Amino acid sequence: ASQTNWEVLRGRFVIIWRDFDEEGLSYSQEVTKILEELNCIIRYIDVDKLNLNVGGDVVDWIKENPNAARDDFLQLPMLDELIDQNI
């Protein structure tokens, strides 16, 4: 994450959809620190409630929900803070 230029997100509302594993949690924590320094408003998809396999991510969710539309994404469970979810 530290090698990426996140400046384009400065001050924006950002939704993080992390991979459902320890590496995904670690990476999203690193990204969160960077985005907080950029005064972003951050929310998180609650991946613990999506019935993903370990290591699952947004691509896997889309494969299982191929007809998902914008409203389906907007209704996904969200968190206001990143927590160490059960994996």
What is the global morphology? globular
Poorly predicted tracts of residues: none
In spatial order, strands of the major sheet run 1-2-3
Class from helix and strand fractions: alpha+beta
| Helix share, percent | 25-40%
Oligomer: single chain
Rounded mean pLDDT is 93
Structure commentary:
It is a single chain. The chain is 32% helix and 13% strand. It has 87 residues and is an alpha+beta fold. A three-stranded mixed sheet has the order 1-2-3, covered by helices on one side. Strand 1 (13-16), helix 1 and strand 2 form a beta-alpha-beta unit. The longest helix has 16 residues, at 22-37. The radius of gyration is 13 Å and the shape is globular. The mean pLDDT is 93.
Topology record:
Blueprint: E1 13-16, H1 22-37, E2 41-45, H2 58-64, H3 70-74, E3 78-79
Parallel strand pairs: 1-2
Antiparallel strand pairs: 2-3
Question: What's this entry about, in short?
Answer:
The protein has 87 residues and is of the alpha+beta class. Helix content is 32%, strand content 13%.
